[in-house]
Q: What sequence folds into this?
């Protein structure tokens, strides 16, 4: 009987620490290569064995996992605040007309920053020809920001990223550009954009521009006709691409590269923020990012996962003073876009909504009888 209060207190401490780790994991979730280059390597197996040999660390991790499972199970069983959730979804989905603009900002701004800084997509990739890199980043970035030739520019940008990735695997740190470019190529510039202005002028036969237009009818319209049928796949492209980025950052950059991750914890004294071991910080941050990534990939609780990612990036942007903020703007913007789109097709959320609607119809039918 005397053991029960002690066990209860230990469980409560473990749960509180696990929640704190999730809340502050963003401070350790920065791209570690950006802030701790050249850290000493640490053997992965030895690191994980040491981290998981501590009963407290195991209790915190299991407590966090149990909390997440209980939260998801409780929500599915009770489905609280249904009207609030419905109003939230309706409101945020009403911003879909602004989605192309949001995507252009999310990709265009960091590309302009990369161009002026002289790196190719990721701050860790500095090709031998800085002039080309600067011209590429600034040109593609500004064209996306202006929304001029948006679909074609995004396709060109995607092509350059894929070619660069074939020669420089470190570009995996900037993999979020892939879903960003794909989404922009499918949706176009939207409004406000130069493309929208040009299309209106070219479509009006009374304008002088419509008579000399070299671009709209010959290039833009055929391109739109080819990609328009795939526009519904934008949420799928975004969540899978962003999810892969999160899994990579959590697993490859933290759990499989603990030396640099431990250097981040030491550099910013993160154990003073949440008083747990540095090993638990790294494992907790890595598992949190990996979990968010998996949820996004399968499309489960997509908006909740996106909101969690949004909070992680917010703490990163304001918590790490020398982290290159522009390197995070693309991911920051894409998870914001996922708040608007939701999971889209081929997702767990789509399946859950189907069964929830079916259950509600069944309940209404029984009540009517």
A:
């Amino acid at each position: 009987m005397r053991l029960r209060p002690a066990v209860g207190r230990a469980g409560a401490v473990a749960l509180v620490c696990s929640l704190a780790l999730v809340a502050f994991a963003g401070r350790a979730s920065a791209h570690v290569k950006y802030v701790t280059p050249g850290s000493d390597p640490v053997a992965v197996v030895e690191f994980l064995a040491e981290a998981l040999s501590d009963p407290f660390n195991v209790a915190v991790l299991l407590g966090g996992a149990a909390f997440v499972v209980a939260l998801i199970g409780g929500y599915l069983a009770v489905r609280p605040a249904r009207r609030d959730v419905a109003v939230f979804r309706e409101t945020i989905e009403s911003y879909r007309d602004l989605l192309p603009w949001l995507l252009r900002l999310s990709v265009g701004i960091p590309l302009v920053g990369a161009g002026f800084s002289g790196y190719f997509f990721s701050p860790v990739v500095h090709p031998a020809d800085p002039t080309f890199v600067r011209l590429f980043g600034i040109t593609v970035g500004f064209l996306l920001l202006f929304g001029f030739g948006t679909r074609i520019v995004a396709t060109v940008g995607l092509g350059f990223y894929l070619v660069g990735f074939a020669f420089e695997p470190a570009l995996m740190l900037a993999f979020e550009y892939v879903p960003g470019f794909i989404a922009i190529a499918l949706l176009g510039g939207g409004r406000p954009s130069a493309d929208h202005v040009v299309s209106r002028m070219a479509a009006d036969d009374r304008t002088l521009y419509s008579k000399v237009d070299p671009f709209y009818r010959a290039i833009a319209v055929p391109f739109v006709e080819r990609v328009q049928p795939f526009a519904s796949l934008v949420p799928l492209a975004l969540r899978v691409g962003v999810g892969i980025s999160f899994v990579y950052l959590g697993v490859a950059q933290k759990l499989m590269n603990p030396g640099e991750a431990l250097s981040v914890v030491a550099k910013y004294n993160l154990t003073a923020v949440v008083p747990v071991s540095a090993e638990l910080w790294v494992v907790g941050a890595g598992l949190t990012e990996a979990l968010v990534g998996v949820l996004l990939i399968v499309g489960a609780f997509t908006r909740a996962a996106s909101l969690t990612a949004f909070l992680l990036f917010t703490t990163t942007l304001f918590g790490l003073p020398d982290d290159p903020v522009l390197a995070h703007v693309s991911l920051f913007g894409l998870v914001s876009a996922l708040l608007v789109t939701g999971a889209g097709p081929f997702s767990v959320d789509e399946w859950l909504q189907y069964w929830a609607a079916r259950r509600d119809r069944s309940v209404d039918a029984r009540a009517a009888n």
Summary: Residues 1-31 have pLDDT under 50 and may be disordered.
